[in-house]
Amino acid sequence: MADAPDLFSDKKIGAAAVVEPETSHEFDWFADRSDVIVDEQRAVAVYRNKADGVVVRQEGYPDEDMFVVLRDDDAVAALIAALQREIGGKR
Question: Which range of residues forms the domain containing residue 71?
Fold first, then answer.
């Protein structure tokens, strides 16, 4: 397997030159939000519990974690369908 290109060098990749990222200018995270594509978010884990339910757990640091427990695969399928509907903008 070939090594991945170093994206932070001045090497050429195909016909395009890859240049150093602009890091020297001041960046205000709060003034212009148009450049921000992902806001900060707490970690989310998904796993099965001892009762074979599916747990969706969100990190709560410094507070307690938050949980949603789906009791069976039908409940999981209903959640997935609702999420897909929301992504598609359909109601």
Answer: 38-91
